[in-house]
Specification:
This protein is mainly alpha-helical. It has two domains: 214 residues, no CATH class; 150 residues, no CATH class. Helix 3 runs parallel beside helix 8. It is globular. The two termini are 22 Å apart.
C-alpha cells in the first residue's frame, strides 16, 4: 500500500463529517433500524425474549422448549423478564424496533460516559459498527452486556460504587457475564461501600421478578436456570455456532473431547491476575483502561457460550487496548488491529470469502484467534511495561 494512498485516506477520514457526534449517533441508530426491518420475519431470538416475559406472567417454565412459539430455548435468568417486559407488550415490529434501538442507545451512552477521549470514542463507533450490526441481526443482549461492563468501570472510576454494584448484579443475574465487573474491585476507593451495595442489589434484583409472579415460582426458575446452563455448556463443546472462544478454538482444532477446559481457564486466570500485582501502576488511567480491555476480551475468550454476535464486547476491548497505551503503537500492532477487523469482525458477513468462512473460520472458531493474540499481548504489556512513561513501541 503506497504512502500516498495512506495519506489520502487519512485526509479523507479527517473531514469533520466523520468526527461529528451527530454522524456517529445517527449511524448507530440507523444500524438498529436496518436490523429491525431486515429481521422482522426472522427474529427468533426476540420471540424467545418476549416469551420470557409472558411465561413469567403465566408461571410456566422459562427453560422448557416451546416449538409452537419459537425454536431453541431461553438461557437468560428470571430477572430478564422485567427487562424485556416493555418490549413484549407492543406489536411485534414495534417491540423489535424499540428493543434494538434501546440496546444500541444503551451501548452508545456507555461509550460516551466511559471517560475515554473523544478520539477513543470515535474509534469505537467506527471500528465496531459492523460488529454491532452483527449483534443487532441476532437481537442479542450481548450489546447490553458490553454496556454494563463499561458502566461498571465508569461508576467505579467516578466513585459511584452504589451504581457500579447495580450494573454488576444486573449483568450477573441476566447472563452471568456481568460478574466480571468485580475485576474493577481493587480500583474502588470505597470497597466497603461497594460490597454492601453488591449485597443490597443482589437481594433486590434477585427478588424483583417476584413482583410479576411469585416467590415460589422464581426460586424454582433460578434452579431451572442453573440446570439449563449446565446442559448448554455440554452442548456448546463442538457446536458450530457456539463456543467461538479460545476454549472452542483449541478444542475444535484438536478435535479432543477428553480434557477439561478448567486447565485453559486456570492458565487464563493466572495471566489475567498477574497485572494486579503491579500496585504502582494503578494510578495511571491508561493501565486501568487496559485492564478494562482485558476484562472485555476475557469474558468472551474463556466462555463456552460465546457466539459470533457476542464479539461486540471484545472488539471494544481491542480498541481500548490499541488507543489507551501511552506509547506509540508499532506496525505489528496496526497489522494485528487489521487482522482483528478482517477475521474477527468481517468473517461472518457476505463480504468475506464464503469458502474460507465455511471451511475454516466457522469449523475451527478462528474468529477468536486475532482477539486471543491481542489479549495475550495485552497481558504481556500490563505485566512488564510502565504506563507512566510514554516510550516508543
Amino acid at each position: 500500500m503506497s504512502i500516498s494512498f495512506l495519506e489520502r485516506s487519512r485526509t479523507f477520514f479527517a473531514k469533520p463529517f466523520f468526527s461529528d457526534r451527530r454522524t456517529t449517533f445517527s449511524l448507530w441508530m440507523l444500524l438498529a433500524v436496518a436490523a429491525a426491518v431486515a429481521k422482522l420475519h426472522s427474529c427468533n431470538n426476540f420471540l424467545i425474549f418476549r416469551g420470557v416475559f409472558w411465561h413469567t406472567i403465566h408461571r410456566t417454565s422459562l427453560y422448557a422448549p416451546y416449538p409452537e412459539e419459537y425454536f431453541d430455548m431461553n438461557h437468560y435468568g428470571p430477572l430478564f423478564s422485567l427487562i424485556i417486559a416493555p418490549f413484549s407488550v407492543p406489536p411485534l415490529f414495534v417491540g423489535l424496533l424499540t428493543w434494538l434501538l434501546t440496546l444500541t442507545g444503551f451501548l452508545y451512552v456507555a461509550v460516551r460516559w466511559s471517560q475515554f477521549t473523544w478520539k477513543q470514542q470515535l474509534f469505537v463507533f467506527w471500528f465496531c459498527a459492523h460488529e454491532l450490526l452483527t449483534a443487532l441481526f441476532m437481537q442479542q443482549f450481548n450489546i447490553a452486556i458490553a454496556a454494563i461492563i463499561l458502566l461498571a468501570y465508569y461508576c467505579i472510576e467516578r466513585e459511584k460504587d452504589f451504581w457500579a454494584a447495580f450494573f454488576i448484579i444486573l449483568g450477573t443475574l441476566v447472563k452471568l457475564y456481568g460478574i466480571v465487573g468485580l475485576a474493577f474491585f481493587f480500583f474502588s476507593r470505597h470497597r466497603v461501600r461497594l460490597v454492601l451495595s453488591l449485597l443490597f442489589w443482589g437481594v433486590v434484583l434477585f427478588a424483583a421478578p417476584m413482583v410479576i409472579s411469585s416467590p415460589e415460582y422464581i426460586l424454582g426458575q433460578y434452579h431451572e436456570w442453573y440446570v439449563s446452563l449446565t446442559e448448554k455448556n455440554a452442548d456448546n463443546m463442538f457446536g458450530s455456532g457456539t463456543n467461538i472462544s479460545l476454549l472452542g478454538l483449541v478444542r475444535k482444532v484438536t478435535h479432543c473431547a477428553t480434557y477439561s477446559d478448567a486447565w485453559l481457564i486456570l492458565g487464563g486466570l493466572v495471566l489475567f491476575a498477574i497485572p494486579y500485582l503491579r500496585l504502582s501502576q494503578y494510578k495511571y488511567t491508561a493501565f486501568r483502561q487496559t485492564l478494562l480491555a482485558s476484562v472485555l476480551m476475557f469474558v468472551v475468550l474463556f466462555s463456552t457460550g460465546s457466539e459470533s454476535s457476542g464479539y461486540i464486547t471484545p472488539l471494544i476491548g481491542v480498541v481500548i487496548w490499541y488507543t489507551a497505551s501511552p506509547w506509540q503503537r508499532s506496525r505489528w500492532d496496526i497489522a494485528l488491529l487489521v487482522l482483528v477487523f478482517i477475521l474477527s469482525s468481517m468473517s461472518p458477513s457476505d463480504l468475506f470469502p464464503a469458502y474460507l468462512r465455511k471451511q475454516w473460520v466457522q469449523p475451527y472458531a478462528l474468529k477468536a484467534l486475532p482477539v486471543t493474540i491481542v489479549w495475550m499481548k495485552l497481558c504481556y504489556e500490563m505485566t512488564f511495561r510502565d504506563y507512566g512513561k510514554p516510550l516508543s513501541a
